[in-house]
């Protein structure tokens, strides 16, 4: 006997298809909304981070005073400092400047360095100016240079680090840095920030820095 098709069956099938379509559209809309919300959140986070304003990290990572190197030997196999014949009174140094900001560059003004001898406040023995520069985001820059000194009691200092040949004997220098920086935010620079930092440098009988800068 032939089956009689009822219009209600077709209507029910159409309703099921429409229901599935509606659910898919709802799920798709929810996913789109979640994705858009996450995208906007990420954009806002990056935008806020771009307005961070941190000063750079500045430190002396290498320091060498040839006049205190008790192991320097001349061509005649005599100690360089026999009879305290000190001829090189310069200081060689490596200044490390680090921009830790992930989204901002830094524009440095002139770097003004002051060198002192002895414990605080110490005696000023020299100064040096280095030109400013631009530093990109998350970049590290080294400024290696030589500073001339005057007024250092090299004879006494050499005697101090030479005591009994002990590597523990040290003398203290100090390095102070003063500069101004401006962070770059998109297409403009922010207001200048003054940077003043300093630390003690201990030097042993090899003439080089001992340990980290205090």
UniProtKB/TrEMBL annotation:
Superkingdom of origin organism: Eukaryota
Main location: membrane
Alphabetized UniProt keyword annotations: Membrane
UniProt-listed InterPro entries: NDR1-like
Subcellular location as annotated: Membrane
Gene Ontology biological process terms, A to Z: defense response to other organism
GO cellular component term of the entry, any: plasma membrane
Protein name as it appears in the record: Late embryogenesis abundant protein LEA-2 subgroup domain-containing protein
